[in-house]
UniProtKB/TrEMBL annotation:
Superkingdom of origin organism: Eukaryota
Keyword line: Membrane, Transmembrane, Transmembrane helix
Regions crossing the membrane: 21-44, 51-74, 80-96, 117-144, 164-184, 196-213
Protein name: Uncharacterized protein
Taxon lineage: Eukaryota, Fungi, Dikarya, Ascomycota, Pezizomycotina
Amino acid sequence: MASDYVVTANLVGLTAWQGEFAVACLSLSLLCCFELAVLTITLWNKKSKIYFWSIAVATFCSLCYTIGGFLYFFAPPSVASKWLCALVSCIGYWIYTPAEFTVMYTRLHLLRPSRRVLLVCKIVLISEWLLFTTPNAILSFAALVSPDLKFANAYSYTQRIEPAVYVSVSVMLSCVYIYHAFVMFKKYGDKKIQGLLIRLVYTNLFLVALGVGNIVSEYVGGGVVQSSYIAFFYSFQLKIELWMLNEIGLLASETLERLENSRPKKRERILLTLYLYHAI
């Protein structure tokens, strides 16, 4: 029935629940972006480090992606052309991924894994961006602005592949992160430190679940639902990243207190982690 559909000014036919879901996700993403902007500005005294700039760039790109989604799905053509909406959204998506990967890599670097582990993680992150995110962003832009169905057909494949690869990379980094967090802190821990470690595990599992939800949204609701969900996922993920950074600082501080009377060698690694935490 006609009443079961929401037809936007761009003549994108959506079922009622898809339209409501898109509005909810994009609105939540917009709220998260403003919260992140405030937190990013207020949390760092020195705004010249890589972690600050990666968070700031990722937040800005998430905001661009969200605004592009709002304009494309709900703005009349007289207000925003498809070219403008697609350009803003796709550039935000394309730049967000390396910025977010930089955040994740920097967080892992605090735990001081071996150089080989860091090198492998770096290669995987760069490869994902170059081989999957970049082609997907290009095909996304072409599918939105070009009448040629070849781009839309190609994008329908890459849009299923890229989120799966992204989730796989996130799972890998989460496993490496959890492992090195336990290696560094578990042997020093009491119940409080163990509780912090358990929260880190659950938080990383939650991030993985959000990534899996990105894949599910494509098959359940199609491109509109997935695009709006991605906007929420990107911004909310950054908030969790900030929380986990704070947890690492708490872990290092708590562990250092327990080692106050220990030998210098036992304190050295924790001191370095705490130093790196304050340095970023």
